[in-house]
Specification:
By secondary structure, the protein is α+β, with helices and mostly antiparallel strands. The chain has two domains: 188 residues, no CATH class; 90 residues, Alpha-Beta Complex (Cathepsin B, Chain A), CATH 3.90.70.10. It has ten helices and eight strands. The strands form two sheets. The chain has a six-stranded antiparallel beta sheet with strand order 1-6-2-3-4-5, sandwiched between helices. A two-stranded antiparallel ribbon has the order 7-8. Helix 2 runs antiparallel to helix 8. The protein starts with 11 loop residues before the first helix and ends with a strand. 37% of the residues are buried.
């Protein structure tokens, strides 16, 4: 069965938007349409070009896409803490106030793991005070009204769902996918692909982070077309590979041989995954969001 509740956003704002949409009854797994980005492209962007995780925009942010489609509005406001608190108290069931919080507060109180300094949390009224709800990890802090200003970083986003998602919206996203799982081709990276690359461990760590996130999205999204439970073992391995690359990053690993051994393992696991995914889609047909089946 398709996953309908897992949040796999690539930024705090994207995650908070997905949380809001889920409470509004959306099947958010249908929003991960661009998830099938090839590992080859991720390697090029991160290892060769030096892109950082927090600056990854090859896949459009879901909240930006929904805003362009007219399903969502997002307004940036730079009001004081009192005005922000009033906005949170006045927010309706389909609205959210995402408050930018002080960096020290985010890391020390909420234990936020985000890599950017502009971190946003959901601001929710709770009796006389407020709850600040973080995305990763899903932590909360309670603040009295007079304490709010010390955590507030001077800006908030007002997010509102304008209309419900429809099968026609889903179908358009399916047809406009940037990357298509049925088109993925197996490939193998070679040791010389990493030549003359500085800060390689950090680059591969960032690459592995985006890779595992997109594969979680892929498992949820393509579950609408076939049984994707076979991906569970690969996702466990992807988590392990990310941890290994992070360990190498913390140790400032310089050995290209060790780093390539980890990369080759990830590469082989991805080839096996994409082959099986393609085979499954060819067997069941590519299902569009109106329920029709199209051959591949």
């Amino acid at each position: 069965m398709p996953e309908q509740s897992s949040v796999y956003g690539m930024s705090c704002v994207e995650n908070q938007t997905l949380f809001l949409l889920r409470t509004c009854g959306w099947d958010i797994s249908r929003l991960y349409s661009h998830c099938a980005i090839p590992l080859r492209e991720l390697f090029y962007l991160f290892a060769r070009c030096g892109l950082r995780y927090e600056r990854f925009e090859r896949i459009p942010r879901i909240h930006q896409q929904l805003r362009e489609e007219g399903l969502l509005s997002i307004t940036k406001r730079e009001d004081g803490a009192k005005e922000t608190a009033a906005a949170a108290r006045g927010a309706g069931w389909n609205q959210a106030v995402l408050m930018m919080v002080d960096t020290v507060f985010a890391r020390c109180v909420l234990h936020a793991r985000g890599l950017r300094d502009d971190h946003y949390v959901r601001l929710l009224p709770d009796g006389d005070g407020f709850r600040l709800r973080n995305d990763l990890p899903e932590t909360e802090a309670f603040l009295r009204p007079e304490e709010l200003a010390s955590a507030y970083a001077g800006r908030y986003l007002f997010v509102q769902v304008i209309r419900a998602n429809t099968p026609a919206d889903d179908r358009r996203r399916w047809e406009r996918r940037i990357f298509r799982a049925e088109d993925l081709e197996p490939f193998y990276l070679e040791p010389d692909d990493m030549d003359d690359t500085e800060d390689l461990a950090r680059r591969l760590r960032d690459m592995a982070g985006i890779y595992k996130l997109t594969r979680y999205q892929m498992r949820a999204y393509y579950a609408h077309a076939m049984d994707t439970s076979f991906m569970d073992a690969t996702l466990l391995q992807a988590e392990k590979r990310y941890a290994q690359f992070e360990y190498c990053n913390l140790r400032r690993e310089k050995s290209q041989e060790r780093l390539f051994a980890l990369l080759r393992g990830l590469n082989e696991e991805d080839v096996a995954l994409t082959k099986r995914l393609r085979a499954g889609l060819e067997t069941t047909g590519i299902r569009s969001w109106d329920g029709e089946v199209h051959g591949t």
